[in-house]
Amino acid sequence: MKLLIVDDEPGLRNSLRLILADEGHEVAEAADGAAALARATAERFDVVLCDVRMPTMDGLEFLRRYRALGEENAALVIMMSAYGSEDSAIAAMKEGAYDYIAKPFRADEVVLVLRKAEERERLRREVDALRTALGSRAVTPEIVAESEAMQSALEVIAKVAPHRTTVLITGPSGTGKEVLARELHRLSPRAERPFVAVNCAAIPEALLESELFGHVRGAFTGAVSDRRGLFEQAAGGTLFLDEIGELPTGLQAKLLRVLQDGEVRRVGDTQSRRVDARVVAATARDLEADVRAGRFREDLFYRLNVVGIRLPPLAERPEDLPPLIRRLLTAHAARMHVDEPVIEPDALRALLDYSWPGNVRELQNALERALVLAVGGRIGLQALPPAIRGPVPSLAPPTAEALSLKRRADAAELEAIREALRRTGGNRREAAALLGISIRTLFYKLRSLGAPAD
């Protein structure tokens, strides 16, 4: 890689140059931010290693100005500082730095960070090449893939799409598992055939078998005619089984047989039927733990997990947050036929500082609310949900509404539910058990409290 070292200490620049040249990198130097900015705009670098504190122009100012140029092939910037602190690291990352190294550092630390950067660039180039090769079937605009985790996921999707291989997508609730499944379908030879999605946790156990496999007339009370199941409805296409970890034990064996034999038998029928539906499953649960606990069949797990893709929570991929905010705001504004608003700095800081336990789904809902409450085409802090903008101190005496016991009880109940969902990684069944209520009661409470039940 071609590297630029920016530091006002000649000795450190020389040491880094020797270390990195030994690793096979081409190395250039600059003594301050102003010189680095001039050189980085005149030449193409892969990575810039930049000190935070320097005369003339410090590292953060260099970073802001360099990122403001907005060049498509801009280098990754890794910040260095002998005055390292969590605050300066966060500030650098928010300004667009790829990583942060605290001085003094060992040679192997720098080499490791650069290898990670090199791997990220390789993945980015592969994804770009796939987009170019696919032409009109390039990655859908709904997917943001600035982070290494998302780029890796897209790389796997592109490789597995042409095949009938089953795929298991895991990750907390709201991370975009269905969006990724739809992308897999769209890139596959089955794209012109149906994409059929079902949430295994949302259908009562007594009806789920009929929903998946269909039934014949007279199979049970109310079965007045033959009915195709979802496997048959997805013929030639893709069947997306969301929340597969909630599938009852009895149906796990029947699903395994369908995956192995390629045949379904409708409820009440004596004959099996051939089906050609590619299965993509998703879950927020730890299925391997469920297998060890005897809650999920080991053979079914391995049959589903031929290719596994993990989507990390939004908090673990902060690089995706700024482009996601822009993308979702643009989409909401277009759908609502309004101009895209400007986000005020304090509101943007609150959005970037929030941990997003509900992941992309929570971000989407928060931005829709903010767009509705925007004033004069600007989203201020007050347009954001209270949980995101944080507690606002008030010197006024509490109103009668604020003193309402029911409102206080509802708020406490909602916070307890949110905490349970956070602890269980968004798994509603485990959250309900933690709260000591049934999953049906949990769904009811979420709806009655105005929170999304899905």
Structural class: alpha/beta
Q: Supply Rg.
A: 26 Å
Q: CATH topology of the largest domain, what is it called?
A: Rossmann fold
Shape: globular
User: Would you state the CATH class of the largest domain?
Assistant: Alpha Beta
* pLDDT averaged residue by residue: 84
CATH superfamily of the largest domain: P-loop containing nucleotide triphosphate hydrolases
Q: How do the strands of the widest beta sheet line up side by side?
A: 2-1-3-4-5
Q: Tell me the span between the first and last alpha carbons.
A: 45 Å
Query: Main beta sheet, described?
Result: 5 strands, parallel
Distinct helical segment count: 20
Relative helix content: 40-55%
Structure notes:
By secondary structure, the protein is of the alpha/beta class. It has four domains: 2-122, 3-Layer(aba) Sandwich (Rossmann fold); 146-312, Rossmann fold (3-Layer(aba) Sandwich); 315-389, Orthogonal Bundle (Helicase, Ruva Protein, domain 3), CATH 1.10.8.60; 400-448, Orthogonal Bundle (Arc Repressor Mutant, subunit A). It has 20 helices and 16 strands. The protein has helices spanning 10-22, 33-42, 59-68, 86-94, 107-134, 148-160, 177-187, 205-213, 230-233, 249-261, 287-292, 298-304, 321-336, 345-353, 359-373, 386-389, 400-403, 405-423, 428-435, 439-448, and strands spanning 2-6, 26-30, 47-51, 76-81, 99-102, 167-170, 195-199, 214-215, 227-228, 238-242, 263-264, 273-274, 278-283, 307-310, 342-343, 378-379. A five-stranded parallel β-sheet has the order 2-1-3-4-5, with helices on both faces. It has a five-stranded parallel β-sheet with strand order 7-10-13-6-14. A two-stranded antiparallel sheet has the order 8-9. α1 links the parallel β1 and β2. α5 packs across α6 (148-160), α13 crosses α15 and α18 crosses α19 (428-435). The chain is globular. It starts with a strand and ends in a 6-residue tail after the last helix.
